[in-house]
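FAQ

Q: What does a record look like?
A: Structure on top, sequence underneath. For example:
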């Protein structure tokens, strides 16, 4: 039986001499298939299996194993590999997707896809990465409260964020938590609320973006019992 799918190549792992295992993000799931001979110089399917390509594939299914029959590249994001910020941003997105998402692909997929196009158009990678990590948190089962105080429910006088408590805190519930700058509080709410079709609406302050990326990454790792996101160091390399 043949299966036709469209998606973004998250990972390409060498298998034997000229074969690769491909991990694909689609709007319904993450799936893997064997791509025979794509490392051969004359392979017609090689370009479709490049990492972070948007591609269409025809797969053959036999005994629950999927094998590539034909691939077609829809869009190659060539500039990713020409910009360290961009490629490290997408690497972190990919790692977080594989580690923390096992549902809500129909929501996550448009964010990943539209971020790739936004990066190609030169939009700020830090803003996009903060948005993507926020969406993973939102749909991973460990949602943070970004609309009201997590303790008392008020929407007034929000002054802090507590990751251990689960989100916003008002001035009456802040206790020993430090007060946050208004711009960071606004950015925190923004990255959870922005839709996948409006990613280029606003560029966050760099310090706010970096703070959110670090804290979101730590929050996800702590929630899922992961030691670290290996791509995080690459993303922040040389930024401070």
């Amino acid at each position: 039986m043949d299966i036709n799918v469209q998606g973004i190549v998250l990972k390409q792992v060498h298998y034997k001499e000229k074969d690769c295992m491909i991990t694909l993000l689609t709007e319904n799931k993450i799936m893997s298939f064997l791509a025979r001979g794509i490392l051969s110089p004359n392979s017609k399917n090689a370009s479709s299996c490049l990492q972070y390509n948007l591609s269409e594939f025809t797969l053959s299914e036999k005994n629950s194993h999927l094998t590539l029959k034909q691939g077609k590249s829809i869009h190659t994001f060539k500039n990713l590999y020409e910009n360290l910020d961009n490629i490290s941003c997408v690497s972190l997105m990919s790692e977080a997707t594989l580690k923390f998402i096992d549902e809500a692909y129909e929501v996550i997929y448009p964010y990943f896809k539209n971020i790739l196009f936004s990066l190609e158009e030169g939009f700020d990678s830090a803003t996009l990465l903060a948005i993507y990590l926020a969406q993973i948190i939102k749909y991973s089962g460990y949602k943070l409260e970004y609309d009201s105080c997590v303790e008392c429910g008020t929407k007034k006088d929000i002054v802090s964020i507590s990751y251990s408590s689960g989100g916003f805190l008002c001035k009456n519930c802040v206790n020993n938590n430090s007060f946050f700058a208004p711009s960071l509080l606004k950015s925190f709410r923004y990255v959870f609320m922005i839709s996948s079709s409006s990613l280029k609406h606003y560029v966050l302050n760099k310090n706010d973006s970096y703070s959110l990326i670090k804290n979101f990454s730590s929050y996800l790792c702590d929630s899922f019992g992961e030691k670290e996101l290996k791509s995080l160091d690459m993303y922040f390399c040389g930024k401070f």
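Q: Is there anything notable about this one?
A: The two ends are 52 Å apart (CA to CA).
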